[in-house]
Design goal:
mainly alpha; Rossmann fold; 127 residues; 6 helices; single chain; two-stranded parallel sheet
């Protein structure tokens, strides 16, 4: 994705840095050489068609990246497959996509998955 895409904007909101932000095309085809030159720390693959797929299928997709072992994202196991069915469509549920990206970019923050945050009523009743 580039900075010209809906997902590029969400990545920026999530606090990520898009290594292809300067490309004008929203969803460019990028070469292995381009990835190797830019050395991403994290790779996000958006595959909503795999929503509900078992972990072995998702693991297969992540392992395809082992063909590029010099990438920091590969070395540190930071390849993520996002399968939310609405991830590629701008709309009111974009905050779920934003939450998921933040959770994947910053695992050390232990952010709750979308939908797990307490409501105002729940938080108020806990007092």
């Amino acid at each position: 994705m580039s900075g010209a895409s809906f997902l590029g904007e969400i990545l920026k909101l999530a606090g990520g840095r898009n290594i292809f932000a300067e490309i004008d095309q929203p969803y460019p085809q990028v070469s292995k050489e381009s990835l190797l030159a830019r050395q991403p720390d994290v790779i996000l693959e958006f595959m909503p068609e795999l929503q509900g797929a078992d972990e072995s299928r998702l693991s297969e997709i992540r392992s395809d990246w082992n063909a590029l072992p010099s990438l920091p994202a590969t070395q540190h196991g930071r390849i993520h497959v996002i399968t939310l069915d609405h991830a590629l469509r701008p709309g009111p549920r974009f905050t779920e996509v934003l939450d998921e990206i933040q959770r994947l970019l910053y695992p050390e923050l232990n952010l709750a998955p979308a939908g797990d945050a307490p409501t105002t009523e729940t938080a108020a009743s806990a007092d």
